[in-house]
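Revision sheet: structure tokens.
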Amino acid sequence: MKVTFIHHSGFFVNQERACFLFDYWKGPLPNPLKIPLFIFVSHGHGDHFNPAVLDYGKRWNKVRWIFSDDIDPKYIPSELTPYVTIAAAGNTYALSVGGADISFTALRSTDIGNAYLIRSGGKTLYHAGDLHLWLWREDPQEDSEMQAAFEKEMEKLRGLAIDAAFLPLDPRQGRDAFLGLDYTARIADIERIYPMHCWQNLDIINELLADPCSEPYRDRICPIRKDGYEDEI
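Predicted:
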């Protein structure tokens, strides 16, 4: 399984029988392949959803789009409606396209939209979208409610074996940026962790790697250096 970092929270995953595109915002995309493509969008914020994914998907012979239910239906042309799954948090879905069978569960974001837990080809992928521990230290009550909402969703990952997890690491939070990723990395059995949502301040990945908190899972963090960075599992 080959993982390519596109930009911000956008990743392209190439498995043997299926490909996945997550939260595309901008940057170069690979040429279409003969195997099916599943395009996941976690929510409608501009740094996670670019309507260009609709035109890009049409270039593939076999494609399905999975949109969170907060995305305005106006973006979906009527002729593509049969190929778009509108996913609501708390639900599990199964799709079969061109010999590729996947199932996925939508988790409720602590911002808007979904995170996605996907099973395909014997692998498990988790893309968090904006499901993260967003602590801003401005209102203790809000921080407490955020902590509770985040931990509630993370219980759904406790003890799970996950091959690739794409987790926010937002430098605007200072050292608090580590907390959500750290929590997830400790409760789930993740083979490879891909930090994202770094606003191109990728030095924060090095800061996490150097921080004592990451010692139990440090060797599983992908040290993304630039757009287009590739990794293989």
